[in-house]
Amino acid sequence: ASGLLIRPGRGQRARWARTPTENLPAFDHEAGFTAEICMRVTRSTATVRGIDFELYAAGSRYFITVTKTGIYAYDGAFRELAEGLDNSSAQHTYRLAVQHDGQAQVFRDGSRLGIVEPHQSRDIASNRYLQWGEGAGGSEAEAVVTHVAYDTTGPYAPVGSGGRTEAD
Q: pTM of the predicted model, to two decimals?
């Protein structure tokens, strides 16, 4: 599949953020919301940093990072959600489905991997954003990204996972 190839040089970073905030609709914490990225991680050199995917709304930060072999959540510290995966030979969809209680379910291709608690953060640059790209902290990561999407009307999730489904 074709897509946007992210291949920064050594010591460089590539990140995209949906700003300014007036271009990104407000997130309704009562209804919940969803963000997803579809990509193939072709290179990652750090243990727990790869291609970051981050959503910030009303003081709550939801953050995962995807390496060639794992997915890690950040809620004050990085922790493993899944390891021993093959994130490099095919495109996969990674989704954050934020529930009305503030927790985000994390999915890879429709399989639930775990929960990300919101990391409380005071981001003075914006009151909401969606950003993605190569992680910091000595990581050198590359990926092919085919889409990034968000939905402010609810936490979309596979049937039986507790969130709204695409059929709702």
A: 0.86
